[in-house]
Design a protein that fits this description.
113 residues, mainly alpha
Length: 113
């Protein structure tokens, strides 16, 4: 990561935000039809029903993590987004060593702002 508040840092932050935006939008485009057409559940996250909300979240999580790594790789930041995805799964209780044997060694290279 470049030094903070330099032009390279702003470019990197813009790229990271772009990847998150593309991934989130693509995930919603994929998940909504999957829940509506495949599972035959009608509803929205706001109005419910609860079965729609729960199924959307359960389906959305693995698709989002996978798309995040794929889109990040296309933009040339595979290592950063792979680390982010592994960290996300570890918060759901999956040990990070199952997905990345060098997770703890590589974690030292990623800054927390």
């Amino acid at each position: 990561m470049p030094p903070r508040y330099t032009p390279k840092w702003y470019a990197e932050m813009m790229l990271i935000c772009t990847v998150f935006g593309i991934t989130g939008s693509t995930t919603m485009v994929v998940v909504r039809p999957a829940v509506t057409d495949v599972l035959k559940l009608e509803g929205t996250m706001r109005d419910g029903p609860w079965s729609y909300r729960i199924c959307s979240l359960v389906i959305m999580t693995p698709i989002y993590a996978t798309l995040l790594v794929c889109v990040g790789t296309v933009f040339g930041r595979h290592a950063y987004f792979r680390h982010f995805s592994v960290k996300m799964w570890s918060r759901f209780g999956v040990p990070p060593e199952l997905m990345d044997k060098n997770f703890h060694r590589n974690a030292k290279n990623f800054k927390k702002w």
